[in-house]
Design brief:
This protein is an alpha/beta fold. It contains 14 helices and 5 strands. A 5-stranded parallel beta sheet has the order 2-3-4-1-5, sandwiched between helices.
């Protein structure tokens, strides 16, 4: 009985440490960039107008049913941001895994890979004792699921198009099914349909993460003190892309109308390309980026 109590206390400590790790990671661009490979500081601007709250509620409800959730959307639509919010909201254990972290990982390596991430994302330094403890925990959870469930977010599959994502996702899903865990995946629609969906051994629920509606875009511009009357129709259309809008407000003075008048798509795309390269997105030429984001 005392061993059981110690085990429960130890697990509670891990859950608390994981929550603290996520809080720190999502509260500062520096931490999220270091740990996740991109700036997902969703908690940094808490006065930011609430966006997509209804969509997030619907997705969160679906996650709780145990169905794997796939967030589909074109580049810059905010799939990773949405996934980070869902990860941050999780009350149990949650892992956020960028696609790049799967380099060199096969299905047979998944148990060790997940153990290493559980150690890292609870703020611990790996050693043999810790690895053994987590392996025992995972084994025990197959018989008796944990009090706090495990959510795994796999972000940006299209960033590593050479990997066999169908096999990796099948492997993660089969392990989570034994633990009554949950999974969220983000990916671009074309790559999902072309390379992954047909090879899955489970039936996920897909959600589209769209660009901003005109109302959402205008609310954000107002939040930053930018008058929509400064903007021509082409610029207004471009700013419906959440990432391009974020690039614009990060690089242009907010209260100088002259800098927003006649703002060209090309100028924003160049800033976007710089931001993407900074965030370790795949190498891409300006022409390729223009074609993809301007279609």
């Amino acid at each position: 009985k005392s061993n059981l109590s110690v085990s429960k206390l130890s697990f509670k400590r891990s859950v608390d440490q994981n929550a603290a790790w996520r809080e720190q990671t999502f509260s500062a661009t520096r931490y999220s960039r270091e740990r996740l490979g991109q700036g997902l500081a969703i908690l940094q601007t808490r006065e930011f107008p609430p966006m997509r709250t209804e969509l997030r509620k619907i997705i969160a409800t679906e996650i709780e049913t145990g169905r794997v959730v796939i967030l589909l959307g074109d580049e810059g639509h905010g799939k990773s941001w949405m996934a980070a919010q869902l990860c941050s909201d999780e009350t149990g254990l949650a892992l956020f895994i960028s696609a790049e972290q799967f380099d060199g990982v096969s299905v047979h390596d998944l148990d060790d890979f997940l153990v290493d991430l559980l150690i890292k994302q609870t703020g611990e330094l790996a050693n043999d004792t810790l690895k053994l403890r987590w392996k025992h925990r995972l084994q025990a959870w197959r018989t008796t699921p944990p009090v706090a469930s495990l959510l795994i977010v796999v972000d940006g599959l299209n960033q590593r198009q050479s990997l066999r994502w169908d096999r990796l996702l099948n492997g993660i899903q089969s392990r989570l099914a034994e633990l009554r865990g949950k999974m969220v995946v983000t990916v671009r629609p074309h790559f999902w349909q072309k390379a992954i969906a047909r090879g899955l051994a489970f039936n996920p629920t897909t959600f589209e993460v769209p660009e901003w509606s005109p109302e959402e875009r205008n609310e954000l511009l107002k939040h930053y003190g930018i008058d929509v009357n400064w903007l021509d129709q082409l610029t207004l259309q471009t700013l419906k892309n959440p990432r391009l809008l974020a690039v614009a407000v990060a690089t242009l003075p907010h209260r100088e109308a002259i800098t927003w008048k006649g703002l060209t798509t090309d100028r924003l795309l160049m800033e976007h390309l710089r931001a993407s390269q900074l965030d370790n997105y795949e190498d891409e030429t300006f022409t390729q980026l223009t074609r993809r984001l301007s279609d």
